[in-house]
Amino acid sequence: MAVLEDLLNSTAEGNGRIATISGAVASGKSELLVTASDRAVAGGAVVVDAVASRAEHGVRFGIVRKIIASLPIAPEATAMILRLMEEAGDPASAGVGFMVCLSTTLLRLAERQPVVIAVDDVHRADPASKQFLLHLARRTRRAKVLLLLTTSNRTPRDQTDFYSELQRQPHHTRLRLRLLSRSGTSHLISGQLSPHAANRLADEVHTVTGGNPMLVQALIDDARATAESTAASGVPLVRAETYIQGVLDCLHRGDSEMLTVARAIAAFGPAATPQTISQLVDLPARTVLQAIEDLGHSGLLSDGQFRDPAARTAILDHAPADVVVRLRDRTARLLFDSGASATEVAQQVVARGGEADAWTLPVLRKAAEYAMVNDDNTFARRCLELAYRVCADERERAEINSQLILATWRTAPAAAGGYLARLTAEAAPDRAVYRNLPMSVAYLAWDGQVDRAAGIVEELTETPQTSEPSDLTAIAAARNWLTAFIPHLRPRLHGPDAAGTAPETEPEPEPAGAVAGASEALPYLHAAATYTAAVTGDSEAEAPVDEAIRILQRYHLTDSAVQPLVSVLWALIYADRLDLALSWCERLLDECSSRDTPSWRALLTVVRAEIALRQGDLGGAESHARAALDQMSVQSWGIAIAHPLAILVQACTMMGRYEEAGRLLDQAVPPAMPHTIAGLHYRQARGRWYLATGRPHAALETFLAIGKSMEAFGTDNPQVVSWHIDAAEAWLALGEPKRAKELAESQLNRSGPGSRRRRAVLLRILGAVETGPRRLPMLREAVKILEDHGSRLQLAIALGELGRCQQAAGDVNQARMLVRKAWHLAKSCGAEPVCEQLIPGYSETEAAPSARATIRQVPESEPLTEAEARVATLAAEGHTNREIAAQLFVTVSTVEQHLTRIYRKLDVRRRRDLPAKLSAVDSWAAA
User: Fold this and answer.
1) What is the pLDDT of residues 520-549, one digit of tens each?
2) Which residues contact 299 (CB under 8 A, 6 or more apart)?
3) Most buried residue among 172, 589, 799, 920 by CB atoms closer than 10 A?
4) Distance between CA 679 and CA 448 in Å, rounded?
5) Looking at the domain 250-319, which fold is it?
6) How far apart are CA 581 and CA 615, in angstroms?
7) Which residues lie within the region annotated Disordered (predicted)?
C-alpha cells in the first residue's frame, strides 16, 4: 500500500504513472485496487473504474464503454465519444481517431484534478480495450493520470505483446502480491478474534489456506459465527458456508482450465499426477501443469494435492452432477487400466452413485473383501450393494447377499433385515449357497425368523440338491446350530424322537482344506455339539470343557467364528468353569477392542456380565450388561436380548432396585424369545423379581413352568437355569419348608462332581429348613465349598445362615462374627436386601469405625499400627490378599508382611480366626 501511496502522490504532482498489480486468484488484488481508489478519492482525484470479466472478453471496447460511462463529463461529450467508438473500425487503424479523442478528454480532465483509471482483471479485457489502454499509457507520462491494472499471476500466451508494451513504458511499476505468511495470517486473525484464539488457530488456518487472504477471512467469519451460535467459550475452526463459498469463488475467479483441473484432482484423489489429469480431462499436459501451478499459488493445493479435504469435497459437491459422473467413470477406468488396487477403483465407482457398469463387478467384490478385513464395514456394504445390482447370475447374487448380511451384522444386525428377506427367497434347494448357510440361518433365527430358518434347513435336509461333503456339512451345521439354541425345533429337524437328545454330528471333513468350502461351517458344527452337551448335561463333566478349549484354541474371531466362539464360552459357564470362561472372554474382548465390530463386542460383553453375576459381582454384572446393550439397539439384539435383560433384571433385583427391574421387564421382547435357551434366563429373572417383591405364588409358577420347558427341551440341567433352587426358595417364602426340603434333597442327590457351587446352595437351603444335628455340618460344608468355588454373594448368604445356626446353638460370639462377615461380603457385592436381612438397620459407617478402633486397643498385646489395622479389618471381612492390596494401593508382598505381624500381635495362627479375635476384642471394648 505504501508503494501505491507514492504513486498517487507522484501523480498528483504531474508525473503520470502506470501500475500493474499481479497475484494469485483471491490474493487480494481487487481489495487493494478498491483501497487505492478510495484513497485517491479522498485526496481529490477522479476515479474511473472498470472490471473485466470472462463473459465480456469478446465484447469489443467492453472496458472502454465502462470507462466512458464513469467519466464526469457533459452528456454531449459522452455521446460524441460513443458515436466515434461505434464508427471506429480496426483499432489498429480506423479506431485511432476515436482513441485520440477519448484520451484527450481524459488528459484535459487531468489538468483540473488527478485522474485514476482502475481496471480489475485486465487480462480478461477485450483486445480493442487493451489497445486503448496501451494508447493511453503512452500519453500519460507528463499528466496527472494514474493507470492501475490488476492481472493474473501468469501472462496468457496470446497477451504477451500487451504486457511487454506496458512494461516498456518508463513510468510503469509492477507489484506482485504474495499469500500471507504464518505471521501475516496470525495478524489478520488477531485483529478480529481474541489473542488466545489467534494463537491457537493461526497454524491450522495457515496450513488449511496456504495464506490465501480470502480463505483466511472466510474461516474467521465461520469461527465467529459458530462461536456465537453455540455460545462456545473457545472459538473452533470450522469449515462452514463462508469458507465453502470462498473455495468456490477462488476457482471461478480463475481460468476455466483451472476449475476443470481442480475438479479432476478432487475426483482422482491422492494418486493424481499431471499426466493422469491430462488424460482424464483431455487437456494438454502443459495446460494442466499451468493450472496446477495456479492452484498452488492460490493456496488450494500443496504438492499437487488439496491442502484441505473439506475443500476437495466442496468442489465435487458443487460441481454439476453429469460432470462428476463423467469424472468418476473415467477415473475408475484409468485406475483399473493402470493396475490400481481394487479398493482405489471401487472408491470411484461407489462415489459415482447410480448404477455401475458390468466390468466393475469383480472389482467391487474384491474391494468389499479387503474392506471387511480392515473393518471398513460401511464401504464394504456400499460395494456389495452395487455389486448385487449389477450382477446377473442368481447364484453369485446369493453369495453377494450373504456377504452383505455379514458386513451389516457386524455393526447393526437389525439393518440386515432386508438382506435376510432376500435370503429366504434365494435359498431354495436348487440355488442354495451352502458356504454361508450356517451363518445365514443363525442370523435369521437371531432376527426372530425362527420358522423361516427352520424351513430352509428342513427343505435342504429332506431334498438335498448336492452330494458334496462340504455342502452336507453346512446343512448339518445349520441344523445342529438351530436345535442347540432353540431346542423345541429338534423334533422338527431331527425327527419326532429327538427331543432331549444331543444333535447329530456329521463326520468331520478332513482338515487342511481337503473339502473346499467347509471351513465356514465347521465352527458352527463343532460349537453346536459342545454347547448342546453342556446344556443337556448328557456328557461327562469335563467333556464339554475340553472340547470348548479346543474350539477356542482352533478358531480366531471372524464372521464365521464369532457366534460359535461365544457359544462355547456359554458352554464353559454352564459347565461351571467360570475361571476358564472369564480368561477366554477377556482375551477375545481384547482381540476385538480395536475393531469396528460392535455386535461382536456386545456378545462377548454379555458373557462377561453373566460371569460377574454368577460370581456375585452385582455391580460388575450391571455395568457389563448395560455396556452390551449400549453396543447395539434393542432391535439389533433380536431374540438374544434375553441375555442382557435377564442379567440386568437380576442385578437390579438383588441390589434392591425393584422398580427399575420392573421397568426392564415391561419392555417388549420378540415372540420367539421364550423358546430359546436365553429365554429361560429371562423367565428366571422375572421369577426372581416376583419372589423379591413379595409375590411368591407368581414366582413359584414361573419357576415350575421353566422346569417343564427344560424337560420338554431335554435341557433340564440346573447348571443352565437353577429353577429347582429358585422353586425351593419360593416354597420357603410360601411357608412350605417341607416342599422346599424335598425339592432340595432330590436335587442334592443329582449333584455331580462338576457342580460344587450348586451343591453348596442346596446345602444352604437344606440348612435353613433342617432343625436336627445335620444342620450345622450342612451349613459348614456349604460355606467351605463357597469359600473355594462359589460366588461372594452366595457365600454371604450361607455365612449368614451359619451365623443364625451358631446363635441358635448358643455361640453368640461366633454368630456375631459370621453375620458381620456375611454383611460385609453382601455389602461389597451391592446386595442391599441381603445386608438388611442379615443385620436390619446396620450400616457400614456404624461397623467400620468400631472394628478399626478396637483393633488398636487389644488388651495385654502389642498395639497394631494404623496400616496393620486396615489390613486386619479387610482380611477379617473376607478379602483376599490381592483385593486388600488393590484397595490400599500397596503390593501383595506388603499385605503378607502386615498379616505376619498381625497374627503375632493378635496371637492367631490362621486367617479364619481373625473375625473371632476381633469380635472378642469388640466385646472386651464394649465391656
Assistant:
1) 889 999 999 999 999 988 655 678 899 999
2) 24, 26, 179, 209, 210, 211, 212, 215, 250, 307
3) 799
4) 12
5) Arc Repressor Mutant, subunit A (1.10.10)
6) 12
7) 495-515
